[in-house]
Specification:
6-stranded mixed sheet; mainly beta; 511 residues; single chain
Length: 511
């Protein structure tokens, strides 16, 4: 957003306060103030018949460039044979001298600007190329002779100044009269002086900061369930400098939580850990930068209030005819798996601000009371597999009151899950996975897998692959179980296929 200062403010100068907010005045935030310098008179009265230069009234900043116009205020036009020398002091460098052109783009003077050093330039006028009246116009000609571009060094010291001086010689007007070559006036912010004036330096320092976050500011703390830190948004800090140009000062800023029981910071990023068990409707990361007022970036944190577990199967059965491949005697049955569904409630400890029905099944760390009876498939996940006969209690780590019981049945015939069908279909690939939430903040509640249409696909080279979906229908069980298989054309399969072709026999590869 650009803020324009009204032109009227420059007639008197002063301070302008900049603030922002919504249409209502409630909650309006003050960004800071802008110092407005009074605009100088372009042509000081009583200084005709001289060369004139206007220096910057405001302070200049490191690496800044500005221009100074050397102007003739004589009452007749300059013709030729004049030399003008401009010198600048320590902290300034002359970049170039530019000669003026008329409205048609043609040079007015036959001139040769020459820099003798980085701090001095001499312009020699050899004559005019345009036509000007010889009569006295009754007022100063106000004609720009040339313009000097000056650059401020990068290492200037704030509060100090450097001089710019102008000298001239040999000027003749269009009527061949000599002009007063010592009549030079320079105006700086202190007034009008002869020969030289001062240019003041200022550091373009940061006078205020605007911190904001590039990520979420509302955090659901699942760290107690998963043991993994939950990361919020990164705080980016923009510095506002005296000259108004913004700069990223994040690396030089410090960030600190206003309540470490709720929220931590890690290099100006919001983090909640399993040690933080308190919620807050508003907690802030306080951002500080040297020499300016601190600013707060608000966050909202929902803590875990409760979690309940349910199992997709209360009983895990051995699968008839399906044995553990690691047992060469083929006497160890493979058991069914159960999905453990974890539904949590979170709160920010405000009045009536709870999040219920939040599915955290993919994040909980489960513990089996007897891993040799039913084992948790992985450290973080919601799957339990039967191992041997018995009953176990599945709990959430750090939350023993959140539990569900699972029974593993013995291998007698009546307890086995019997497969009554198997359908294998080649697929073009897996379709998109869609998430169907059933409540606020629900995630992974229902996942529908859309299978591609069966296709006829040829395996043509090594590592070529195609996919199969194998659907097993179990007796005495609701629904079906689907597994996905990938068949790749390995060198072994290629050899088998070649043998079948040579001997004109059929070849079947069993999944």
């Amino acid at each position: 957003i650009d803020v324009n200062v009204n032109a009227v403010a420059f007639t008197t100068g002063g301070t302008v306060t900049v603030s922002y907010g919504f249409k209502s005045e409630i909650g309006r935030v003050t960004l800071g103030t802008v110092q407005v310098h009074q605009a100088p008179f372009a042509l000081p009265i009583g200084n005709q018949n001289s060369l004139f230069a206007m220096l910057p009234f405001r302070s200049v900043y490191p690496n800044e460039q500005f221009t100074v116009a050397i102007t003739s205020l004589y009452d007749t036009y300059i013709r030729s044979s004049g030399n003008i020398v401009v010198n600048v002091g320590q902290g300034l460098e002359i970049v170039e001298a530019t000669m003026p052109k008329d409205s048609g783009g043609n040079a007015r003077f036959d001139a040769n600007p020459a820099k003798s050093s980085s701090t001095s330039v001499k312009v020699s006028l050899a004559g005019r190329k345009d036509t000007v009246p010889s009569a006295i116009p009754g007022t100063s000609t106000n004609e720009v002779i040339f313009t000097v571009t000056v650059k401020v060094d990068s290492n200037v010291v704030a509060g100090r100044s450097a001089n710019l001086s102008v000298s001239s010689s040999g000027f003749v007007d269009v009527n061949s009269f000599n002009l007063d070559n010592e009549a030079i006036r320079i105006r700086d912010r202190s007034g009008i002086a002869r020969v030289e004036g001062a240019i003041h330096f200022q550091e373009n320092s940061v006078v205020g900061i605007l911190p904001f976050t590039t990520g979420p500011t509302e955090i659901v703390n699942t760290a107690l369930l998963s043991g993994q830190d939950v990361l919020g948004g990164n705080v980016v800090v923009t510095g506002i400098r005296k000259r108004g140009t913004p700069i990223d000062v994040t690396s030089g800023a410090t960030c600190q939580s206003t309540d470490t029981n709720v929220l931590e910071t890690r290099q100006c990023r919001a983090v909640v850990q399993e040690t933080q068990t308190v919620g807050a409707r508003e907690v802030a990361i306080r951002v500080q930068y040297a020499g300016v007022s601190s600013k707060d970036v608000p966050f909202r944190v929902h803590r875990l209030a409760s979690v309940t577990l349910t199992s997709s199967r209360g009983q895990l059965r051995p699968i008839d005819g399906y044995f553990d491949e690691s047992d060469t005697s083929c006497s160890t049955y493979v058991y069914e798996e159960a999905d453990i569904i974890a539904i949590a409630t979170f709160t920010d400890d405000g009045v009536g601000t709870t999040i219920s029905g939040y599915d955290v099944s993919s994040e909980v760390r489960l513990i089996s009371s007897q891993p040799n009876v039913a084992a948790v498939t992985s450290g973080v996940g919601a799957h339990v597999t039967g191992v041997s006969v018995g009953t176990v209690t599945i709990t959430v780590m750090n939350m023993p009151n959140a539990s569900v019981g699972v029974q593993v049945l013995d291998t007698t015939q009546q307890n086995r899950a019997i497969l009554i069908g198997l359908d294998v279909v080649p697929l073009s690939g897996l379709g998109p996975i869609s998430v169907i939430p059933t409540g606020p903040y629900a995630q992974y509640t229902n996942i529908a897998i859309n299978l591609g249409a069966p296709v006829v696909q040829s395996l043509k080279f090594e590592d070529d692959a195609m996919y199969f979906a194998a659907t097993a229908v179990q007796l005495q069980q609701q629904g079906v179980q689907t597994q996905f298989y990938r068949l790749s054309l390995s060198l072994h399969l290629i050899q088998k296929l070649l043998q079948a072709i040579v001997h004109k026999t059929s070849f079947v590869h069993t999944l």
